[in-house]
Design brief:
With 143 residues, the protein is of the alpha/beta class. It has one domain: 3-Layer(aba) Sandwich (Rossmann fold), CATH 3.40.50. The protein is globular.
Length: 143
C-alpha cells in the first residue's frame, strides 16, 4: 500500500513520461561540433514528437540548446529554463519562462529531473547517466 505522497510522486512521473518532457544536460564545455552532431538530432526528434524541454542556464551546452530551440521556433510553453539564485545568468528570459531561486546545483538538478520523464544527455558521443539520483528519478531515453 502506498502513501498519498508516494502515489502523487508515481502519478506525476507517469504523467511526465506520457507527455514527453525532456531534460537536456551534459558537459558544459561541449564543442559546437559535438553539440550539432549528437544533441541537435535528438532534440529535433523530441521537437517533432511535440516534446517539452527543461534545462539549466549554464553557458555552453545549455545555452546552445536554448539557441537551438529558439531557432527551431519551439513555443515558450514547451521550454522552461531553471536557474540558481535570483536571476538567469545565460539565456533569453524574454523568450522562455524560468524557474529559479535554487540554492545549489543539486537542488536545481533534482527539480529538473523531477519535472522531466526523459533525458537527452551525451558524453563523448555516448549516452550519459548523470548520477544515481538521475537513474532513480528519470527514465533514460536518448532518441
Amino acid at each position: 500500500m502506498y502513501t498519498f505522497v508516494e502515489m502523487s510522486y508515481i502519478v506525476s512521473r507517469l504523467y511526465n513520461r506520457m507527455n514527453c518532457v525532456y531534460l537536456i544536460s551534459g558537459d558544459t564545455d561541449i564543442p559546437a561540433k559535438e553539440f550539432n552532431k549528437y544533441y541537435c538530432p535528438a532534440i529535433n526528434r523530441a521537437i517533432a514528437n511535440d516534446g517539452q524541454f527543461v534545462l539549466g542556464d549554464d553557458r555552453g551546452l545549455e545555452l546552445m540548446a536554448q539557441i537551438h530551440l529558439a531557432n527551431r521556433r519551439v513555443p515558450n510553453n514547451r521550454v522552461t529554463i531553471y536557474h540558481l539564485h535570483d536571476r538567469v545568468y545565460n539565456g533569453n528570459t524574454a523568450l522562455y519562462p524560468t524557474i529559479g531561486r535554487f540554492t545549489s546545483h543539486q537542488e536545481m538538478t533534482t527539480a529538473m529531473i523531477e519535472a522531466s520523464g526523459h533525458d537527452i544527455a551525451f558524453t563523448g558521443g555516448h549516452p550519459q547517466r548523470r548520477s544515481k539520483m538521475c537513474e532513480v528519478c528519470s527514465t533514460f531515453t536518448v532518441m
